[in-house]
Amino acid sequence: MTTTAYLTALETHLRGTDRKLLVPYVTGGVSDDWIDYVHAAVDAGADAVEIGIPFSDPVIDGPVIQAASVRSLDRGTTPESVLRDLAAYRRDVPLIAMTYYNLVLQHGQREFARDLVASGVNGAILPDLPLEESASWEADAAAHGVATVLIAAPSTPDDRLAALCSRSTGFVYGMGVMGVTGERAAPTDSARDMARRLKAVTDKPVLIGVGVSTKENAEKVAGVADGVIIGAPVMRRVAEAGGAAGVAELIAGFRAALDRAGG
User: Fold this and answer.
1) What catalytic reaction does the record list (predicted)?
2) Active site positions, annotated
3) What's the alpha-carbon Rg for the chain, to the nearest Å?
4) Which domains occur in the chain, in start order?
5) Taking the complete model, does pTM exceed 0.70, yes or no?
6) What 3-state DSSP class applies to 129?
7) Which of 32, 102, 109, 195 has the most neighbouring CB atoms within 10 Å?
8) pLDDT tens-digit readout, 221-235
């Protein structure tokens, strides 16, 4: 089992939550009132919220989230504008930034970590930054109290999985399926297998995302994992003009499903 020498604020919060964890994703800047979607998700039972900082050339985003990012970028969204908007965040569950390393590099690693904290963000996910090249970012993030959440794929070999878990802070993000984010109708064996493999080598919270699309598959996956991450269902609800009320209804349904899994 691997244990960090210290706990980030994000991990401390998640460990202190006595239920299966639910982390929805919201694309920053997708509309004038996008912070309302974040508040709605938290009020409906989210344990943290992943905030997407849109990038023009994503590697892990499927069509729904890509479309949200394009819409956001067309509105003039920048990393700076997303972080400024977060000044309006008025809840106490953690926020996690999800973006791509090019934006971090352009901003400056230390400055980016500093600005995340100043905006109330507790963690960061950089899916295109390989483990072999992430030590410098991890150090700068840790110096400012930002958790670096690393991603494990079903194809990750066991020895690399252990190293990844050892260095991930906040939680470990397991991909339920190979491929980009998106909606799948049913849970796959790979999602539950990913959770089992991660739980065998770490005592950190293990959350499964990518392909966790329905309340039913979230409940089944959470029977093994500590929780789930949902992105495409949230952003589809936003795209369908569901508004904050629609996001709240969606998250409440997932919350009830996870509570059944943890019961």
Assistant:
1) (1S,2R)-1-C-(indol-3-yl)glycerol 3-phosphate + L-serine = D-glyceraldehyde 3-phosphate + L-tryptophan + H2O
2) 50, 61
3) 17
4) 20-148+219-257 (3.20.20.70)
5) yes
6) coil
7) 195
8) 999 999 999 999 999
